[in-house]
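Contributing: when you submit paired examples, paste them exactly as shown. First protein:
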Amino acid sequence: MNKLARKQIERPVSNVYCAIETGSLKQVFIESAKLIQAEIIETTPSNLIKALNNIIEGTPANEILSSIHGATGPLETWLDENTTKWDTTLGDKNITNAEQAKFGITYCDQALAESGTVVLLNENNTGRSVSLLPEIHIVLIPVEVIVPRLKESMRDLHGRVKQGKLVPSCVNYITGPSNSADIESYLVVGVHGPLRTIYVILDEET
C-alpha cells in the first residue's frame, strides 16, 4: 500500500509573514494604521522634538498631558517645559488634567503590524487616562517595538510571568481612534475617547 504524501501546510494568509522575511514590518504597520484612521508621522529620535513642536503648534502646557516613564535627554527637557506630567501624588487632579487636555502623549511598549494596534503597559506610575480622555492622543512608537501580531505580544507578556516579573494590572491594546458605523452605516471616528490618534514612528538614525 502506497503511503499518502504529507501535504505541505500553508501559512495563514497574512502580509505580516512576508514582512518578517523582508524586514518591512514597519510598512505593514503603517498601512494597517491608515486603515483604522490613525495619522502617521515618521521621524528619528534626533528630530523628535521638531516633530512634536509641529504637532502641538504652540498649545500651552496646561493643555498637554504626558505620561512617559523614563524619558531622558532632550525629550525629558521638552516634556518638562511643554507639558503637564501625570503625577501620582496629585490623585484625582490627574483625571481633571486629562479631561481638560487637548493632547495626551504616551509611549508605546509594543505595536502590532497586522492590525495597527499599539500596546500600552500601565506600569511605573503611567496614567491610563492619558490615552483615553484628551482630545488628541499622540503615541511615540520606536520602530524596534513593532511585532507581527497579537501572538508575539502575548508571548512577551507570558515570558515576563515565567521570569517572575510583575505584569501591570492594566494592559491597553488601542487600535486607532474609536470607530462606529452603527447608525445608517455612516462611519463616525472618535465616538469614544480621543477624536484623533497620531502615531509618531521613531526610525533608527541613519
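Second protein:
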Amino acid sequence: MTVLVAVDDPRGTALAAALEREGLVVVAVVPARALADAAADDLHGHEAKRVSQALAGAETIVLQADRATLTAGAVSLCDRRGVRIVPLAGDPSDARVVETFGLAGPWPIDIEPWRLVDAMAGAAAPPQAPAPDSRHPRVVAVWGPAGAPGRTTLAIELAVELARGGRHVGLIDADTHAPSMALQLGLADEGPGFAAACRQAELGGLDARELTRIAMPLGRADVDVLTGINRPSRWPELSDARVTAALDACRGWADYTVVDVAAPLERDEEIVSDLDGPRRNAATLAALRSADLVVAVTAADPVGISRFVRAHAELRATIGATPVAVVANRLRPGTLGIDARGQVRRTLDRFAGIHDVWFVPTDPRSTDAAILASRPVAEVAPKSPLTLAVRRFVGEAVAPVAAPVAATPRRGIRRPSSRAA
C-alpha cells in the first residue's frame, strides 16, 4: 500500500518512518495544510508539483485533520484522484470536523503505527467516544427580566465553562430585541448566524455539517457561536417553528447548546388578532419551551429583584415543569447593605418560592478587560471572582459531577475502640 503522510513535523517524519517499518510505502511527507492548499490552488512551483505527484502515486493519505486542513476542496480533490483519507484528530473539535464529511474514523493523532496499519486495512474500528449523560440538559436557555441583568455575559461564560473537559458547546444569540453577542465577542454580525440556521431548519436541510459551516469558533474553547440578527427589525425571520426546529437540530450537533434570549414574554399579537401571523417574542418563547434547563438571571439589587419577582410567575407559566436555576448577578453590598446574600435569598423565598440561588459577584475589572479584548472573561481573567463563581454554578446546577461512592467497611473486622482501656 502506498501512503502519503500529511502531518506536521516532527510527528509526520516519525510516523512515516514507523509506517515504512510496518511494510507500507510512503511516497512523501508534506505539511498538514498542503492538501487544502493544493485544492485551493494556493501552492505554486516546486511544492505544487511535489504534492500533485505524491497524490498521483498514493492510494491512501494519512491526514492531520482540523478545520484548516480538512476542507470540502481537499475531500473533493482526493475523491477525484481516488485517494482514501485516513484522518487523525487531536481533540474532540477536530473529530467533529471529520464527522461532518462522513469519513471513517477519526483515529487519535498519537495512535500506534501498527494500529493505524490495521485501521487502513479495515481490521480495526476507531475508538468510540462515550455517549453523553442523558440526565444532563442538552439545551440551556439563559433568560432574565428587563433591565440588562447580564444575560449575554452569563451565557458566554456558561458556554465557555461547559466546554471544559472536551465538551462541544453551541452558543446561540436568539435575542430579537437587543442582540449583542457578536459585538461583545468581536465577531462579524453580517454572517449567516442563527437566522440562516432557522431558514435551513424550516427547509429540512439543517444538520451537524451545516451548523459547523455557518458557526464561528470562539477562541481556544470548543465553542461554536451562531450570532444573532444584526438589526432588530429582522425579528420575523426567527419564527416559533423555525427556532424549535433549529434547536432540535442542535441537540445532535453539540453536547450542550446555550441560548441567549430576550426579556419580554408577552403575547400582544394574540390579543390583537387571532390570525396566525409573526410574533415578536416567538423566538424567546420557543427557546424557553425547547430548553431542558432555564437559567434565570436577576440583578442583585432592589430594582432587579423586584423586576425578577414580577416576571418569574410569567416565566413559570411559559415553561411549565422545566427546571429553573436562578442566578443573582452583580452581587455587591453597596446596594443591599449587610448580609446581601441573605437578603436576596429571603426575598426570593418569600415572594417567589425560590429556595436555591447561586450568586455571581460584581467584577468590573475583569468584565472591562473582557470587553476591551472582545473575549470571554474566562480567557482574559481565568481566576477572577466572576469566572470562579460561574464555574461553581456549572458544576453544581448544570453539569454536576457524580459524587464518589463511599467505601463500605468490610464485615468481620472489629475496629479498635477510641476509649482507653
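If you have annotations for the second protein, write them as plain sentences, like these:
Residues 139-398 form a domain with the Rossmann fold fold (CATH 3.40.50.300).
The longest strand covers residues 324-331.
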